[in-house]
Write a structure and sequence with these properties.
The protein is built from no helices and four strands. By secondary structure, it is mainly β. It has a domain of 48 residues. Strands 2-1-3-4 form a four-stranded antiparallel β-sheet, with no helix packed on it. It comes from Pseudomonas bharatica CSV86. This is LapA adhesin domain-containing protein.
C-alpha cells in the first residue's frame, strides 16, 4: 500500500499517509478589507498513490472563513 498524494491548483499538495484517513494543507491569509470575509478557492489537479482501483478527483472546494467577535448575551 502507498500513501495518497493529492495535487492542488495552487502548487500545494495534501499527503495522506498509509492507514490514515485524512491530510491537510496550510494557507497564508491574504489581506482583505475588514468588512469582507476571505474566500479561499482551490481545485484538485491530480492524485497519485494509494493503490485505489479507480479514484476520480474533480471539482472545486471553497472555504469561507468567518473571523470576528463572538456575540455574547449581556
Amino acid at each position: 500500500m502507498r500513501r495518497l498524494v493529492i495535487s492542488l491548483a495552487n502548487a500545494s499538495s495534501i499527503t495522506i499517509p498509509v492507514n490514515a484517513t485524512s491530510g491537510s494543507v496550510n494557507y497564508n491569509r491574504t489581506e482583505q478589507p475588514v468588512h469582507q470575509q476571505p474566500t479561499l478557492t482551490n481545485s484538485i489537479t491530480g492524485v497519485s498513490g494509494g493503490n485505489f482501483e479507480k479514484l476520480e478527483a474533480s471539482g472545486t472546494t471553497t472555504t469561507t472563513v468567518t473571523d470576528g467577535p463572538i456575540d455574547t448575551p449581556p
